[in-house]
Please model this.
Amino acid sequence: MTHFVCADHHFGHAKALEFRKEFADLDSMHRTMIHSHNRVVTHSDTVYFLGDVVWFRHGLKVIRELNGRKILVPGNHDRHWDLYSYAFQEVRGDFHYPKGKGAFLSHVPIHPDCVDRFGLNVHGHLHDAQDLGDPRYICVSMECINYTPVDLDQLILGANQ
Model:
């Protein structure tokens, strides 16, 4: 079983096309993300979604097409609390993975004074801003990871080398 991480899908959010010019419409954006996700994630894997996953309720249907056990760390655009159990097995405010030094998973980057206690901060929210000038921060917004979830253990290992 592999643990994956990703953020900022914006399923069902037409305005996302304004900064994702490679997609002609929402359907092509959804299909690309579904294909990329299911190409690397199996049904036995766990995927941490670090917020801004759906904009409108119908976006939750897209999530059901994605492989893996899905855990949501909500972002500022996730507001369908009554329906999350339809698409996610678990919803958390944030997540420390694994226990001990590893990574703190959040939607927005945490304050720099807090990062050392966790090792790394894996986050979303910034979209194409991949580098905060601090190697303790790793942005996994869809644009930063080629619309494909990344192996969380490999991400942590690579950051610690």
Remarks:
- The beta strands are 3-6, 46-49, 69-72, 90-91, 95-97, 103-105, 121-123, 137-139, 150-151.
- The radius of gyration is 15 Å.
